[in-house]
Design goal:
This protein is of the alpha/beta class and 274 residues long. The protein has one domain: Vaccinia Virus protein VP39 (Rossmann fold). It has ten helices and eleven strands. It has helices at 2-21, 27-32, 39-43, 45-48, 65-72, 84-96, 111-114, 136-146, 160-163, 213-222; strands spanning 55-59, 76-81, 102-105, 120-125, 147-158, 186-189, 205-208, 225-233, 245-247, 253-255, 265-272. Strands 3-2-1-4-5-11-8 form a seven-stranded mixed sheet, sandwiched between helices. A two-stranded antiparallel sheet has the order 6-7. Strand 1 (55-59), helix 5 and strand 2 (76-81) form a beta-alpha-beta unit. Helix 1 packs parallel to helix 6. The chain is globular. The two termini are 33 Å apart. 39% of the residues are buried. The mean pLDDT is 96. It comes from Ectopseudomonas alcaliphila.
């Protein structure tokens, strides 16, 4: 597992500057407009509700665009990520936007220990995070430990059914990868990242794991959480299945043919028992 984390960290350290420079993350829009929010946060605004004044923690915050968006909605934010290069970009963005956000470098599995006695009203995880974690139970344990009694987890994530599909197949939906959590990672070797850039990565090998929806919910229940909302969506913010998807006016990608066949992402909320 340690080797996997080191491989993934090297990969994300290389991606950070490329993502910050790409129009996909809209960094300049954040700087130019104090009202600008990330598409990911905007998608879930009605589900988030009023978060003004809440102490909030964004796990796996990357370069901080979603973190900044939550802060602009009035919460007091801490962002945590294992990539020092990502946090460097996140701090630059927050400073450029004159937004006070506390950023911490740590693995999610060490979050509760590193943050000490601090407890939060809201723990937030945005899309494309859980697949980098080998064990979902350790994640759930840290989430529960970091929340105040009655505090809320807010998670939007790629659907595990989507992550089990062969993304190279352009004419059908074909299962190629595990749906359930598995000990050995799915190993990728890809010199490209997912934003518009001509640069290539030298730290190209990454390790990923899938976690079934039941496994995620069961882990949260085991650690003293109560599920309060679960909504599956026919869309997500990137072209996960090239050749089979189309971009909507809302910035979300959907299957071009019969989108009702497949959940692509979901939003989950859970509250820590008092």
């Amino acid at each position: 597992m340690d080797d996997s984390f080191e491989l993934n960290k090297a990969n994300w350290n290389e991606r950070a500057a490329l993502h910050a420079a790409s129009p996909d993350y809209q960094v300049q829009k954040f700087i130019d407009s104090a009202e600008h929010l990330s598409d990911v946060v905007r998608f879930d605004l009605r589900r988030l509700g009023d978060i003004r004044g809440l102490e909030a923690l964004h796990l796996q915050c990357h370069i901080g665009t979603d973190t900044l968006s939550l802060a602009r909605l009035g919460a007091h934010l801490t962002g945590l990520d294992f990539s020092c290069a990502s946090l460097e970009q996140a701090r630059r963005l927050a400073e450029a936007c004159q937004q006070g956000i506390h950023f911490v470098e740590a693995s999610v599995y060490d979050a509760a220990q590193v943050l000490g006695e601090q407890r939060y009203d809201l723990v937030y995880t945005s899309i494309g995070a859980l697949n980098w974690l080998p064990r979902i139970d350790d994640w759930a344990q840290n989430v529960a430990a970091l929340l105040k009694p009655g505090g809320r987890l807010f998670l939007r994530e790629a659907h595990p059914i989507l992550l089990s599909l062969d993304e190279t197949c352009e004419d059908e939906l074909r299962i190629a990868h595990p749906y359930f959590e598995h000990r050995e990672p799915v190993v990728w070797d890809d010199e490209q990242t997912y934003v518009q850039t001509e640069a290539t990565l030298t730290a190209s090998v990454t390790h990923e794991w899938n976690h079934g929806l039941g496994e995620i919910i069961s882990a949260l229940l085991r650690h003293g959480m109560t599920l309060t909302a679960l909504e599956e969506h026919d869309c997500l913010p990137w072209e996960a299945l090239p050749g089979q998807m189309q971009l909507g006016a809302d910035g979300e990608w959907r299957l071009r043919s019969r989108p009702e066949r497949l959940p692509l992402s979901y939003t989950l909320q859970a509250v820590k028992n008092r």
